[in-house]
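Re: the request from the purification team.
They wanted to know what the chain is likely to look like in 3D before they choose a buffer screen. I agreed to run a prediction and write the result into the notebook, where they can find it.
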Amino acid sequence: MLEFNFRRVLITGVSGSGGSYLAEHLVNNYPSAEVCGITRWHSTTSRDNLEAIANKVKIHECDLTDAFSVLRTLRKVNPDAIFHLAAYANVKAAFDYPLAVSENNIKGTLNLLEAVRFLNETEIIKNPRIMIASTPEVYGQPDKKHIPITEECPIDPVNPYAVSKTMQDIWGKMSNKSYGLDVIRTRMFTYINPRRTDLFATSFAMQVARIEKGLQKEMLHGNLESTRTILDVRDAMEAYCYAIAKGEPGEAYNIAGTTTMKVGDVLEVLKRKAKCDIPTRLNPELLRPTDVTLQIPSTEKFMRKTGWKPKYSFEESIEFLLDHCRREVEKEEAIKKISEKYRDGGV
């Protein structure tokens, strides 16, 4: 069991897909740590993600793009560990809204780091450990000579989201080197996240579940040729805890699973597990202007430093994903039946 000695942790973006899973992992595995989270009053994410642990997480309203809001919240919470997960993370949508993505991701991170620096220098809070959740998108499309991708692979972002995350990453490193902030950076490769429906695996699984219930006729997909190395969300959240507990300040760490396959292969696995035939069709609107097609990482640095290893197999991850999506579609079907009943004059 990991020795997790933080008394109070703060998760930015706690009601989001990754943040909520992280909060659950902390509550269920490290009960001595008080778990706090921040979410925006105008957030598009749902607090339903926190339903199972609602009475065990202290939520604070805070907009990271509002510097005074960040200062007030950090002073009030006084955390000794911060998981910075909040970000606008839809890669395809970022091509259409690059300014909004940059404003949210970069300014929010700078406000957080500057607030910590100010409060630390004035001795209002003690220098907390900060984990910035970066992404392999910062590497762009690496030359094959850099495969598997190590942390020394050149940074070369090719989409607006990746540019914003690169800036988060670099500011985190600079804040450690120049200001002495206790910052580490994690570059988490693809993980199965049932609560984030814009990810390819979750989108596929939701469509499988909807087709099984007769709510949809065919599955729409984008590029199936991209290669990904896949991790279970539960392993991913444990890895974040290992990173913040054992990582070296100023360093960046690749985190990933051990199963590598094409996006199309994941689709085929889900089709085999479906309860009916799943017709599929390419939707050109799901294709990105530029795509990162080869993400095969080396996690040697992270595993050597922390001793972390994934526990869940790819098959277990897929079953976990499908179970979640089928439950969500059952809720959708129930709501549809109630709506039809009222529409037809039922009580």
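For the purification team: The radius of gyration is 20 Å.
Please add any questions underneath this entry.
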